[in-house]
Request: fold
Amino acid sequence: MRRFAGPAGSVTRITVGSKVLRSNMLDDSPVRVVDVYVPAGHDGQGLPLLVDLVGFTSSGLSHTSWAGFRENVPERLDRLIGEQRMAPVVVAFPDCFTRLGGNQYINSASIGAWEDFLLQEMLPEIEQRFKCGGSGRRGVFGKSSGGYGAITHALRHSDIWSAAACHSGDMGFELCYLPDMPAVLRALAGNGNSIERWWKQLEGAQKHPEGSFKVINALAMAASYDPDPTQFLGMRLPVTFDTCEIIEERWANWLRQDPVVAIETQASNLHKLKALYIDCGENDQFNLLYGARRFVRRLNELGIAHRYEEFPDNHTNVDYRMDESLPFLAGALTG
Reply:
């Protein structure tokens, strides 16, 4: 592709020392890096602020790095803003990578108080430094686990966020997580059903073995949605090891975090948003389309304003969908 030849914005890398992330079970650093994009011709002052939450196994820093054959997100923003398809905004790209491979952007006794970090520590730091954002002028967006984070923050924190975009976000948990459990149990069986032994073997390997992503993902989700501080890194599964039957108490803790379930008690927050965007690929290989449809059906029943789109693609390499969501969010936050 031909890259945009107009003025380029700046990306400043800052660090945020966190108090709430100290002493996490994973021994991850509480000092987190955040890249901050400011569009050409601006210093950030008075502009709305968007926060980019990336998918599992990634970091916000991956979105500001050079990318072959495609734009990175700052380059995409330069083009959209430079062609006047999008109002100028500041965008923050936090590094929320963890020992377990990523983040769902919620508080967890295992992974850490990431919800508190983003809202209570990162946002004030960025807004103070760049004089941007503020009440009514903050938006959050993301894809996959980042989409989950965006929609969950919108459900919980409409006092902080005024706009949100969820690209292919995790929802409909019984469809996107439970189908992987048999494969996870087969992998753990080779290590005597020991999560600790399997994980330490993974960390000691020179490369991750084929099929390990499903296990990593399932264990990280367990540590996010149903952490157990008495277990290794807080990880426990919601199914039995021998018969793969659901453990109702464990699975109930997962479901409380499912946006399709959470909307029943938190919908009032979505009514307060200036903009809500949701999309998903028609061929999403993680079955997220069906959760998205369930969620959107409930939005319609509750009369919550939103924009929903399905597109002819799967879950992979769909950053081009930001061409739709980012102008939508920026327009709602400008003025």
Observations:
- Residues 175-255 form one domain.
- The mean pLDDT is 97.
- The radius of gyration is 20 Å.
